[in-house]
Amino acid sequence: MAVISALAGTAIALVFWVTLVLYGFSSFWWLLEVTVLATGWRADDESEIPLENIQVRILTYNSPSTVQVTVNSVPEKIGATKVIAEADMDIDGADVHVVPDDFESQAQKKGRAIEWARKHVECEEEYILYLDEDSIMVNFEGLPAADLIQISEHPLRTGSWWVYLCEVFRVGYQREQRAFHRMAYPLYAWGGAVAVRHELENEVTWDVPTITEDTTYIWRAAKYVDQQGGKFEYRLLNRRFRNQAPPSIREMFNQRRRWMSGTLRDMYRLPKRYLPLQFTRIITWTLSPVIPLLSVLAFLYPQFVPQHGLYQVTSIALFSMLFVYMIAGLIEYKKYPEVWPIYLVLTPLVVALHAVGALWGLFRPATDFKITEKTPGRVTQDQPERASSETLADLNPDLDAEIMEPNKPTEEDETPTSAND
């Protein structure tokens, strides 16, 4: 009986310390990214690729009112604006191309549409900027020269305040993207606003089975460039394109589940040296709410934790990292500073909600994903049934009015300048 008790105690101690070490490694890596590796993240010339040499492609299932707001935000000087849709629609200011039902591809949903467009939609521009149907362009004057350029995001509230806070937390954590230009294989991509070099895209293609086509593409592109003896060039453009947060907690759970499932499914594309880091990040994302719980348990039952004092100090330090991520997100948003203290108090609950979908995807991976209904920018005349619905402008009263109108050049735009935030 004594042997069993000793083994049980050892097992409990291992759970406490292994969880702490994994989370500690992930936190240390994030701090290293944002303080050291992020040095020089901004390109010397963030508008080296002029608007005329960029084609915008907006991916949609069938949300014309949402797409119209996105098209309105595209600068007039852009090379071409294309809407890649699953159903025909009338959009002012863009050519609409419908993906035929009989098009066969290994890619799924959005990836399938992108692959069809790659094969069948003409492109004379050097770069293609892919946007989701709800990605509103702001402060866009061009692109830095690279193989892939990630434009940062600024999710807008569409329903749940809890979901909105989860997005603020996520944007704070994504500050690490500033270090990705130093990695041979950037850790992930957000497909809602990502620009690719068209020549490289034609070599890599999107024709692979995946539910996270954006991250899978960046890994495959990096591998292709590496095999050609080159170095994959990544740049982050911090323009904070507006996009929509999931409208409900359940939709957010489904989204995070898909992200986790796609990452697990496609991790084999990464070099082996990246796998320990990626596995650690996966475990710590799903277990992030456990850190404060373990700290409380260690305080209540110190006999189960060897080096109890060290454990308590370390766990409190790592617990505080959750607030660091949230503060980073609040700084990126620069909104509602008067309620930041409330947001910070709610951080532990926000972290728990943010992790649920990832935990779901870890234990029950998704093989497909449901398309999320978007909130219209404004109710249009052809949508009288939504006259009582809240729009983006209703839900985000501080949303700049010009964002909802065509992004036309001003007199200052006539003189090319380097775009800096």
Automatic annotation (TrEMBL):
Pfam families associated with the record: Glyco_trans_2_3
TM stretches of this protein: 6-32, 282-304, 310-331, 343-363
Domain Glycosyltransferase 2-like: 127-326
GO cellular component: cytoplasm
InterPro entries: B_mannosylTrfase_Bre-3/Egh, Glyco_trans_2-like, Nucleotide-diphossugar_trans
Domain of life: Archaea
A GO term for molecular function: beta-1,4-mannosyltransferase activity
SUPFAM superfamilies given in the database record: Nucleotide-diphospho-sugar transferases
Keywords: Membrane, Transferase, Transmembrane, Transmembrane helix
Region: Disordered, residue numbers: 374-421
Protein name per its UniProtKB record: Glycosyltransferase family 2 protein
Organism encoding this protein: Halonotius aquaticus
